[in-house]
Write a structure and sequence with these properties.
The protein has 300 residues and is mainly alpha-helical. Helix content is 66%, strand content 3%. It has a two-stranded antiparallel ribbon. Strands 2-3 form a two-stranded antiparallel sheet. A hairpin with a 2-residue loop joins β2 and β3.
Length: 300
């Protein structure tokens, strides 16, 4: 997993060398250049220590659940599309490509799975062949060639560019990816950029937005399930729940609904609020055996 961390390692080591051993940087101009140049070239996502700034903003209640995304949206609403693109993807973004994945340092993104630990060698020897065979079984020959372990990127990316230009962006289940009310399809410029092994922002921006929303949705749904689990625990109790238990539950529900409402997640259909109807559904399922078990009882 460390193969692609050497850039981060060397960059941070160079910054440390520029700072020196004193309280003030020995080479202040060089240090400032190192700190700011990735953001100028590839956007705010590559700011050194970005994760720390985001956590600080969250602690201060600034920017909601995703201060980075809210900042970009504010810039776009206030100054227009071009400044928003520059803030997201830097000078490269104005040229139509995203270099964010290549230049972001990611000082907190430690490996969190076996796949992460195996890194590039593991992907080449295990993950890519498995995904290649899965794509073949599903009739997605283009994706299979893209994932071939021996396929270099300069050959795989033109194949991917042609697929995104003709079929559009699709999931591994061959569902088309929609953005707003239209399928996400690469235009001629996007296809050329992809064929040249760049990440076109016409594809990168929508997919990045959807990825962030999916992470946020997953987090809120997990929190909602915790509230439902607390409610089911009250139903399990042999004695009636106390007034304090009900007040705690209702307080959690109100806070949850207020937060998703403030973030607009309910209006966009990403996270459903907890309502009387949803609690009644939980209660019904709690006291009623699943259909499979009812059929088992009838059959036996």
């Amino acid at each position: 997993f460390y193969i692609f961390k050497t850039f981060s390692h060397n960059y941070l080591q160079l910054m440390a060398h520029s700072w020196g051993k004193s309280w003030t940087p020995q080479h202040a101009k060089a240090f400032a250049y190192l700190a700011l140049s990735p953001a100028v070239v590839a956007g705010g996502g590559t700011i050194i220590g970005k994760e720390l700034f985001i956590q600080l903003a969250k602690a201060l209640g600034i920017g909601g659940d995703d201060p980075e995304e809210e900042t970009y949206k504010w810039i776009g609403d206030t100054f227009g599309e071009a400044p928003e693109t520059f803030s997201r993807y830097g000078v490269a973004g104005l040229a139509g490509v995203s270099l964010k994945g290549s230049l972001q340092i990611g000082i907190t993104d430690l490996p969190s799975s076996i796949g992460d630990l195996l890194g590039a060698p593991g992907a080449m020897l295990y993950k890519d062949p498995m995904m290649m065979m899965k794509a073949i079984n599903r009739g997605a020959w283009s994706k299979a060639f893209e994932k071939a372990p021996i396929m270099p990127l300069f050959l795989a990316n033109p194949i991917k560019a042609a697929r995104e230009y003709t079929e559009g962006v699709t999931t591994w289940g061959n569902y088309p990816v929609y953005y707003k009310d239209k399928p996400l399809v690469a235009d001629a410029t996007d296809a050329v950029m992809r064929a040249l092994s760049f990440n076109p922002i016409g594809i990168a921006k929508p997919t990045e937005t959807q990825y962030k929303e999916s992470k946020l949705t997953k987090s809120y749904n997990a929190e909602k399930e915790d509230i439902y689990a607390l409610y089911r625990k009250m139903l399990l109790s042999k004695k009636a729940a106390s007034m304090m238990d009900w007040m705690e539950l209702l307080s959690n529900i109100q806070q949850f609904n207020n937060r998703i409402g403030a973030a607009g997640l309910d209006r966009r259909g990403l996270v459903q609020p907890i309502t009387d109807k949803s609690l009644k559904t939980i209660t019904t399922k709690f006291y009623q055996p699943p259909m499979v078990e009812r059929l088992r009882s009838i059959n036996e």
